[in-house]
Write a structure and sequence with these properties.
Shape: globular
Number of strands: 5
CATH superfamily: Dehydroquinate synthase-like - alpha domain
Largest sheet: 3 strands, antiparallel
Strand content: 5-15%
Radius of gyration: 16 Å
Number of helices: 9
CATH architecture: Up-down Bundle
Distance between the termini: 36 Å
Length: about 230
């Protein structure tokens, strides 16, 4: 509702990596019906919350505050609270993608958590983690890495970890699992030669794109979870 519905990205999973095949195709319209959530398991519903946290961390500090204030109600799936949160998350994404449809610039900040997250998904043959669970773990891993590189404030890592946990999402990446899945990071579509374009959250609700060497990213991730 908050991520796949807006922006026009289409793609599918492949054994060699996540979303390596796809296209941009804008919908003729988007309908969001929160009643549909009643057809999902609690785990599936919770998984979707990771994308809201990602949008808040990168582009809407007030949404991040709202998620923290109403975390218990959101985790329970209370429609009254979710309706406002979903709308705000969609509006935040629209503000970004309307000016950068094909991800040539700022839209790339919405890839937060997806470099490591996609690697975790692919390593588990898309069965170990739901997408949102992998994104939550990837977000913590990437925030911790950019914090060690001096680009992200350390308190923000703790804040994100606490929020994911309150929402019922995994928040403690396994160093062993990250190590086992790292080969998929090397085939990530955001890689350019020996470097990779990765979102860096500089403060709540603000982010930019940095090109970081794969070696530096790997060292920072493993140092953060050593």
């Amino acid at each position: 509702m908050v991520d796949a519905s807006v922006g026009g990205k289409t793609g599918f999973d492949h054994p060699t990596g996540k979303n390596l095949l796809g296209a941009f195709h804008q919908p003729s319209g988007v309908v969001v019906d929160l009643a549909h959530l009643s057809t999902l398991s609690a785990r599936e519903r919770t998984s979707g919350l990771a994308e809201i946290v990602k949008i808040a961390l990168t582009s809407d500090a007030s949404l991040l505050d709202a998620l923290e204030s109403d975390a218990a109600s959101i985790a329970r799936g209370e429609t009254r609270v979710l309706a406002a949160i979903v709308r705000r998350a969609i509006e935040a994404k629209v503000r970004i993608v309307r000016d950068d449809e094909r991800e040539k610039g700022l839209r790339a900040i919405l890839n937060l958590g997806h470099t490591v997250g996609h690697a975790l998904e692919a390593h588990g043959n898309y069965r170990t983690h739901l997408h949102g669970e992998a994104v939550a773990l990837g977000t913590i891993a990437e925030l911790a890495a950019t914090s060690r590189l001096g680009l992200t404030p350390a308190p923000l890592v703790d804040r994100a970890r606490a929020l994911f946990a309150r929402l019922g999402l995994p928040s403690n990446p396994s160093r062993a699992e990250i190590a086992a899945s790292w080969s998929f990071v090397a085939s990530d579509k955001k890689r350019v030669m020996t470097r990779i374009r990765i979102p860096v959250v500089t403060k709540p609700g603000e982010a930019r794109i940095e090109q970081i060497s794969l070696d530096s990213l790997r060292e920072a991730v493993f140092a953060a979870f050593g």
